[in-house]
Design goal:
CATH topology of the domain at 14-19 and 53-72 and 89-95 and 130-317: UDP-N-acetylmuramoyl-L-alanine:D-glutamate ligase
Distance between the termini: 42 Å
CATH architecture of the domain at 14-19 and 53-72 and 89-95 and 130-317: 3-Layer(aba) Sandwich
CATH class of the domain at 14-19 and 53-72 and 89-95 and 130-317: Alpha Beta
Shape: globular
Radius of gyration: 19 Å
Number of strands: 14
Number of helices: 10
Order of helices and strands: EEEHEEHEEEHHEHEEHHEEEHHH
Structural class: alpha/beta
Largest sheet: 8 strands, mixed
CATH superfamily of the domain at 14-19 and 53-72 and 89-95 and 130-317: Ribokinase
Helix content: 25-40%
Low-confidence stretches: 1-9, 319-331
């Protein structure tokens, strides 16, 4: 595995806290419309998943020292996830196997373009990632250069984390609109947040129906205390702001195979850039490269992810920044 130079060579490490899922993904064959109460042909795959687990694997593949705090069931899915995550280079010593619980499982139905149509997630095991379990790793968290988590954690676990370790740089993925509200009490301690349109609108209470709505929403997050904001609009790009600079960044041109995991790769790329001491915009450009590579694989993680692979993609694409003038709104 390629080791990057810079921020990760001096004993610094990142801690990722959150879920480990086995995704069961069904995708319609091209040309077959999605209809309610109807069956149809498609392809079903089992994929390693979970926002936090995906971020941890990506960080390890980028050569970072990544410690993962999660829970796995003592079942076939849990054993497979544990083995694959460890093989990718993630330090699982802070994680544990829970004998009397089922590994988190997510049933995902995609349309023929690979976009998620609907999903059902059984994340009940995440309740075992309790404040008491996190407290067992207080020393580990205190020494972390960076902590990455998401709103799948229980409110009690998030309260414990931000109360005890809110002085650490914390990167947060809001996961989905159902769970996003859990982070509201702690926005003043969030270093970087990465919501999509639905999550950003729910948290801020502001409309997010076009690109013109992005700057006011980013300003709302800054007033709440968030240092860096990355608003994800999927195929329409990203709006970024850190209070000093703001603008749009367009997606890199790649042949999209599957969109699952791209946002997790983006967050991992931002974490990598921060650990390497990169300026915010440079880190975001690198993160977009991580996301673009992930779009080209059926899996939730690009298996050959490395700093050199990302730099080569950026070199070919030249990764220009979009003009700050808002382009046409997404339909």
């Amino acid at each position: 595995m390629e080791k990057p130079t810079g921020g990760n060579s001096d004993g610094r490490y990142a801690v990722v806290i959150g879920n480990s899922n086995m995704d069961i993904a069904g995708t319609r064959v091209p040309g077959v419309a999605m209809r309610a109460f109807d069956a149809g042909p498609g392809v079903i795959r089992y994929k390693r998943g979970g926002v936090a687990r995906n971020v941890a694997e990506n960080l390890a593949r980028l050569g970072c020292d990544c410690r993962f705090v999660s829970v796995f069931g003592d079942d076939h899915h849990g054993q497979a996830l544990w083995a694959a995550t460890s093989e990718a280079g993630v330090d699982l010593s802070p994680s544990r196997i829970v004998p009397d619980a089922t590994t988190s499982t997510c049933l995902v139905v995609n349309d023929s373009a690979g976009e998620m149509f609907y999903a059902i997630a059984d994340l009940s095991i995440i309740e075992r990632l309790s404040p008491a379990h996190l407290a067992d790793h207080s020393e580990l968290l205190e020494g972390a250069a960076l902590i990455v988590t998401n709103t799948d954690l229980s409110e009690e676990a998030l309260d414990w984390l931000f109360t005890r370790h809110g002085d650490r740089p914390l990167l947060v993925d809001t996961v989905d609109a159902f769970y996003a509200g859990r982070i509201l009490p702690w926005l003043s301690r969030v270093h970087t947040i990465k919501p999509n349109r639905a999550e950003a609108s729910q948290l801020s209470g502001l409309p997010f129906k076009s690109r013109e709505h992005a700057p006011p929403i980013a300003d709302w997050f800054h007033r709440a205390g968030v240092m860096q904001v990355v608003l994800s609009l999927g195929e329409y790009g990203l709006y970024y702001s850190n209070g000093q600079s703001a603008g749009w960044m367009e997606p890199l041109p790649v042949d999209v195979v599957n969109v699952s995991g791209a946002g997790d790769a983006l967050l991992a790329g931002l974490a990598y850039g921060w650990l390497e001491g990169q300026p915010f915009v440079d880190a975001l450009r690198f993160a977009c490269g991580c996301a673009a590579l992930t779009l080209t694989t059926e899996d939730n993680n690009y298996p050959a992810l490395s700093p050199s692979a990302v730099r080569e993609l950026l070199r070919r694409a030249r990764a220009p920044l979009a003009p700050s003038i808002a382009p046409p709104a997404p339909r």
